[in-house]
UniProtKB/TrEMBL annotation:
Residue ranges of every copy of the HTH lysR-type domain listed in the record: 2-59
Molecular functions (GO terms): DNA binding; DNA-binding transcription factor activity
Lineage: Bacteria, Bacillati, Actinomycetota, Actinomycetes, Kitasatosporales
GO CC, one annotated term: protein-DNA complex
Name of the protein this chain belongs to: LysR family transcriptional regulator
Swiss-Prot/TrEMBL keywords: DNA-binding, Transcription, Transcription regulation
InterPro entries with a match to the protein in the record: LysR_HTH_N, LysR_subst-bd, WH-like_DNA-bd_sf, WH_DNA-bd_sf
Pfam family, one: HTH_1
Species annotation: Streptomyces tirandamycinicus
Alphabetical list of Gene3D superfamilies matching this protein: Periplasmic binding protein-like II (3.40.190.10), Winged helix-like DNA-binding domain superfamily/Winged helix DNA-binding domain (1.10.10.10)
Family: Belongs to the LysR transcriptional regulatory family.
Length: 303
């Protein structure tokens, strides 16, 4: 019979693409991963990995077995979740990831949950919104808390449960001393072009969801900033706005919290959605459900 743990390694290798990345995810050495995959090949009686001096990749048989492994692991995880639900105890290990801007609000709730349940171990990581779904599906994370700046946030997909925590307005953030910050009214197209046209535009690097949403709005109104500064982290952008370095699109809550920043509401309205992602196979797991409830308490519509 094929070893379940080795099937999990094969599945992770299929998702990650390299021995090194697979080893890092699982906490093994690369040589240990290679040894386990070789043992799985002996169990299966066929070559699963094509090895060269520079890389390793799945053979056709390896890809087929990885697909079987995904279904097997889903079934096992679902069965484990149901058995844990029967017991009802909150314990075990739950891996939670969160985008940096939301971590200060979420962390105290997770810490309180862990204190109340000594058998529970919460392992927390930073994540990016663009990669979180894939990381949940390949079991690097059990729960991911992200934001989505698109007009239509993702719905549940194959194997993924999407929990909407709240919607939040996006504002055009200006230094409080900016002449237009004192003028009432929203930031319509003409006003946005005027503000952006003579200020440094502060934004996330390309590939971030907030960057894509901001670029789309600027393009739609014909606003062309004279220069861009790119920084990771919405709180970093807020601090730069307060320092007079430029202007940016920011969540309204972050703009309010930062002294020296005034937020103007864009027209049409811009919003982001705070989401929690889990696997459908763990929906009955009491520990993951408790962590999800902590996220709802920390980041739900009442906040």
């Amino acid at each position: 019979m094929l070893d379940l743990r080795r099937l999990e390694i094969l599945h992770r290798f299929s998702a990650r693409g390299t021995i090194t990345a697979t080893a890092a995810d699982l906490g093994y050495s690369p040589s240990a991963v290679s040894q386990q995959l070789a043992a799985l090949e002996r169990e299966a009686g066929i070559a699963l990995i094509e090895r060269t001096a520079r890389r390793a990749s799945l053979t056709d048989a390896g890809r087929e077995l990885a697909e079987h492994a995904a279904r097997i692991l889903d079934a096992v995880e679902s069965a484990e979740s149901r058995m844990r639900a029967r017991v009802g105890a909150i314990g075990g290990r739950v891996t939670v990831s969160c985008i940096p801007a939301l971590a200060p609000a979420l962390a105290p709730h997770l810490a309180e949950l862990q204190r109340g349940h000594p058998e529970l171990t919460v392992v927390a990581h930073e994540t990016g919104s663009t990669t979180a779904a894939a990381a949940v599906l390949d079991r690097r994370y059990d729960l991911a808390v992200i934001d989505d700046w698109s007009a239509h946030p993702p719905a549940e997909g194959t194997g993924l449960s999407v929990h909407r925590l709240r919607r939040e307005d996006i504002v055009l953030a200006l230094p409080s001393g900016h002449p237009l910050a004192e003028q009432p009214g929203p930031a319509n197209a003409a006003r946005l072009r005027q503000i952006v046209g003579d200020r440094t535009w502060l934004c996330a690097p390309a590939g971030q969801l907030s960057r894509a949403a901001g670029d789309q709005r600027l393009t739609s109104v014909g606003a062309v900033p004279p220069r861009r500064w790119e920084f990771e982290g919405l709180h970093v952008l807020a601090a730069l706005v307060a320092a007079g370095a430029g202007v940016a699109f920011l969540p309204a809550g972050i703009a309010r919290e930062q002294a020296g920043v005034t937020g103007l509401r864009p027209v049409p309205r811009m919003q982001r959605t705070i989401l929690a992602l889990t696997r459908t196979t763990t929906r009955e797991d009491p520990a993951i459900a408790a962590c999800l409830q902590a996220a709802k308490q920390a980041l739900g519509s009442g906040h």
